[in-house]
């Protein structure tokens, strides 16, 4: 909400601001990647040429970002937890958790309920802001994929 208010106050489009922030983050990751040996990806994250490689690049970029579905899966790896237990703790029905596991977009209320129940790789709990950031990244991925598909359908002049 603070971010939305700040964008409105600055007269900036929230989606464009988020995309710019993600591009900046990717650029920083690109710089770090070039300095670290043995990294998975050495391509150009910012290449905007629309071709099959860009589609693969986008998939690779976003496949490295954590998702809420990944966080739920990771939490359920703990032998003390199960889907029913997570449903009980979050007060989110099992069938809805299954939809979230398949990539359905969580509501603000669901993010609030999932916070502190989902665990990171290091075992600590996610907070609401981290889950909201994951949802933003998932939304951005979906928009990027839609743009890519749209651009590939348009005839080249």
What would you note in describing this structure?
The chain is mainly alpha-helical and 157 residues long. It folds into two domains: 2-46; 68-132, 434 Repressor (Amino-terminal Domain) (Orthogonal Bundle), CATH 1.10.260. Helix content is 64%, strand content 0%. The longest helix is centred in the C-terminal third of the chain and has 26 residues, at 128-153. The chain starts with a helix and ends with a helix.
Catalogue the unreliable spans: 36-51
Number of separate helices: 8
The fold-level CATH name of the largest domain is 434 Repressor (Amino-terminal Domain)
Level-2 CATH architecture of the largest domain: Orthogonal Bundle
| Proportion of helical residues | 55-70%
Radius of gyration: 18 Å
Could you give the order of the helices and strands?
HHHHHHHH
Shape: globular
Q: How many domain regions?
A: 2
Separation of the first and last Cα atoms? 42 Å
Please report which band the strand proportion falls in: under 5%, 5-15%, 15-25%, 25-35%, 35-45% or over 45%: under 5%
Number of strands: 0
> What's the CATH class label of the largest domain?
Mainly Alpha
- Strand count, sense and closure of the main sheet? none
Question: Structural class per helix/strand content?
Answer: mainly alpha
Mean pLDDT: 76
